[in-house]
Protein: Methylthioribose kinase
Amino acid sequence: MAKYTAFNAEHAVDYIKELVKSELISVFPADATLTAYEFGDGNLNLVFRVADQYNNSVILKQALPYARCVGESWPLSLDRARIEAEVLINHGKLCPEHTVAILHHNVELALTVLEDLGELQILRGAQINAEQFPLLASHVALYLSRIGFYNSDFYLSAEDKKAKVSQFINPDLCKITEDLFFTDPYIEHERNNFPTELTEHVESIRNNDALKLAAAKLKAKFLSCPQTLLHGDMHSGSIFVDSKTTKMIDPEFGFFGPVGFDIGSFMGNLLLNYCAQNARITEQAKRRQYQTHLLTCLQDCYSQFEQHWLNLASSEATDISFANRAFSEDYLQHVLRDAVGYCGAELIRRTIGLAHVADIDGIEDAQARLAVQQQTLVLGEQLMLNATSCNNKDEFFSLLISLLN
Ligand SMILES: Nc1ncnc2c1ncn2[C@@H]1O[C@H](COP(=O)(O)OP(=O)(O)O)[C@@H](O)[C@H]1O
Ligand SMILES: CSC[C@H]1O[C@H](OP(=O)(O)O)[C@H](O)[C@@H]1O
Structure:
């Protein structure tokens, strides 16, 4: 059993060489000369690209025993690498078209070897440049409905479901979400990060009892509602795209939680980009056209997600109680309300909490950036406050359009 050590590029090459020699991966020929470099830009882990002289390559991702963005003062369990690998295996079986392929994993070394998606782009960077992906909505809807449905009580036996819930207990990373999404933005906390000009607005959030109640309810549901095996971190940095392809990476925050969390996080990131474009695209017609595309993407994604789920429930539900259409509709109404609330929470935490988004932080003009931050806070507040009044998706879309105008 290999003892854990944090890798450098040389370790990464040696490790992959051994896999090639033992024929455990088939990406490289036997005469491959391997080189590696580290290029991780996420908050938590090391990411190496290992390549040969023929342009073949793989990604080696390794967990550190702490959060990379903060350092050793924030220890984190290495078990997150096992969770990430096992979520990728689970989601890869259910939706291989939209899940990065896992080629190998090693629990002791807390590492995974993944297909290299370097020919695609990370969605966040592409959306900052206002690039459009017409298939994104349907791909995300398919992925979230399939992973959601087939890991839920609609499909799994009660026994199987309980075994899977226990397989994916992920306390360290859930704690990050519990703190960063639902606690920190509503209290004074050293992890929070916002410009002094936002202080008055932040104080109004901290003094808003209705908003704090909404945040507490969303947190309680996140803690105690094991509906399905979530991706757990469905932001625009976890999605690789091109005009025909969409692939999800990085499900290390995966655990059994509320179905609405992933779709709410995804919609929140579309809206963060929507607001950021008010300061990025100067030409009004161009800006309107791009923002309409984002809104259509959000609406199509939610509508298709809901439709896929209803179809799956009528054809694949294994429990007679859940095969009932009225039950599915009631279940999805709650999913919608949760998703709207989580979407609002994502907007707020990405504006004043620890982890921001480049869509907004990269806006050079400080005044323009501030105006965007004010907008994302108001939008987030209103979505959280009105989430439970949304009876169906059309009411949600009308609410959203009224808030964006
Ligand atoms: N399969 C992959 N193919 C190509 N690049 C990848 C792949 N996985 C990760 N990366 C690169 O590494 C970066 C960080 O990866 P990520 O899984 O998000 O790490 P973290 O868990 O630290 O957030 C990504 O933004 C991307 O640039
Ligand atoms: C201290 S983790 C902060 C933040 O980072 C995670 O995203 P990623 O690992 O993709 O960079 C996640 O969204 C966490 O909330």
Q: What stands out?
A: Residues 40-45, 47, 59, 61, 100, 114-118, 122, 237, 249-250, 252 surround adenosine-5'-diphosphate (ligand 1) (CB under 6 Å).
